[in-house]
Description:
alpha+beta, acyltransferase activity, transferring groups other than amino-acyl groups, Acetyltransferase (GNAT) family protein, Acyl_CoA_acyltransferase
Amino acid sequence: MEAVRVLVLDVDTQDTTRSMDTHSIRFLSPGLAAEYAASGQLLYSEAYLERIDEDRMWCVGAESAEGLQSFAWLHEGIAEKEMNEGYHSATATEIRLSADAAFVFNVFTTPESRGLGLMPAILGHAATKLRRTRGVRWLVTTTEITNDAARAGFLKSGFREVGQYFRYGIGKQAWGSYPKPEGPIRGFA
């Protein structure tokens, strides 16, 4: 069983601009993302590298002189099961989103850079750019209900919790209990 929080950021109602004096924040090109992955800095991202050049998949990162310090992957549209697995692939859950929403997944900050505000900075940068260039109005994410650090980071980034769901899986069979879809969330599968 997995218990998961669902969080949403309304880009239009949040202050998504945060300046960083010590880090450069930008969308990573496919080549740069591959370099960071090869050097071990873009963790847990191998499956996504193949898709970074798609029109709806991005990786945004915070860089310092020491290299990549924080990153987040975003996908415009449906949050595919593979992007929302949690700890067990049997309980992966697809989240159907409105056309003006992007799903945030695989967010990571190096231990030595935690507490510097990098997560709000990279998510704010992504929200601002995607709103301006793609018309994205919402960012949606999920986190394990026991991951208080991730929840706190998303709340500091302007997200609000809109519900929780519980997903059970045995082999290929999975079922769940989901919140009522609201805002950019159209349903769960």
